[in-house]
Amino acid sequence: MTGFIAAAGLLALGAIVFVAWPLLHVPAASAGGQRWSALIAALLLAGSALALYPRLSHWSWRQAPSAAEAVGGSIQALLQATRLHPDDAPAWLELGRGYLRANQWGLARRSFRRADTLSAGRSAAALAGLGQTIMFENNGIENDAAIELFERALKVDPHSPQALFYTAVALMHAGYLEEARNRFATLLSLGPPAAVSDAIARQIAGLDADMAAANAAAKTSTDTAIHLNIELAPALQGRVPAGASLFVFVRSPDGGAPLAVKRLPATFPQRVDLSAADSMLAGSSISKGQRVLVVARISATGTPTASAGDLSGQLSAVAGQSAQHQLLITATSAPGSQK
User: Fold this and answer.
1) pLDDT by residue (tens digit) across 71-103?
2) Which of 43, 149, 263, 271 holds its CA 20 to 30 A away from the CA of 69?
């Protein structure tokens, strides 16, 4: 800009000399009036230039914005801040955020990467910005690269809002409910705007309900569990076809639909636990202390319906007992003998 001002000044001086010089080279008899005319012409030229240029020019004569002044500003203002302060990491951060708002993912990534380089990897905001950019490029879906950046951001700053939010969502989707809740709670403690606080509080309440239901289901499973160690009789070794399935049923001695069932590969020996969590039908499950019949059957066809030649075994058990039951498959089923 300094060079432009100098050049403009020289041009203005040249124009003044061009107009005033003839007026100064006149006969001595009329020199006084002509010299006044030359002075007036020079002042008019200079004054007109100073008055008209600010009106006709598109240049802003304000001091170039700093990174702090450019926060939330236009892309042009943010770019100007980085040009004038190329080693200012906050300026590059703001430019990256500006490009994110404009959905310019590639330019946002370049800006955040520059901020990360300038901060020697110690800027949680730059790392989180890179993670956000990768997610937005992936249609808003978390992936390993983005989550790794968010986790790195949390190591630098455990209270990074973006990193806390996105990692909490990823943990929730992966089934780590307690860890997700803890990160949402930390995010809430940072005092976000009221609308955001309400949404986070609802999310925490939903996670609390999910964890309570999971704990109740786990307790029910423990209270109704039947622990089995299933083995194949030595005489039947070699009679299990490749790809066969092992079905384990829990039934009431009075008959009716199975109270629980599992399908497993037909490998032996193997440990199996069945409980109310393995119920097939709503309202029809094992009760704590209930005496039941447990049937293990090897199906060559891979279907739960019994077929001729299936190998099976059974025993009686009480749901909820901690004992480990030994179930030995010793017989060949007749058609329809075990549904």
Assistant:
1) 445 889 999 999 999 999 999 999 999 999 999
2) 149
DSSP classification of residue 227: E
In percent, the amount of the chain with pLDDT more than 90 equals 57
The answer to pTM > 0.90 is no
Token pair belonging to 24: 């100064």
Other Cβ atoms within 10 Å of 225 Cβ, number: 20
Tokens for 81, please give them.
């801040």
pLDDT of amino acid 71: 45
CATH topology of domain 75-215: 1.25.40
Going through the chain in order, the beta strands assigned E by DSSP cover: 226-232, 245-251, 260-265, 270-274, 291-299, 311-318, 324-329, 331-332
For the residues of 309-333, what is the DSSP string, one character each? T-EEEEEEEETT--PEEEEEE-EEP
Burial of residue 125, with CB atoms counted within 10 A of its CB: 0-12 exposed, 13-18 middle, 19 or more buried: buried
Using alpha carbons, list the distances in angstroms from residue 300 to 244, 269, 270, 310, 311.
5, 18, 18, 7, 9
Element of type H or E holding 100: helix 89-101
Give 232-279 pLDDT, tens digit per residue. 999 998 889 888 999 999 999 888 889 999 999 999 999 999 998 888
Q: Which DSSP category does 62 fall into?
A: S
- Determine the pLDDT at residue 64: 42
Is the confidence at residue 132, as pLDDT, over 50? Answer: yes
Q: How far is CA 245 from CA 260, 291, 315, 316, in A?
A: 16, 26, 19, 22
| Tokens, residue 284 | 């029809």
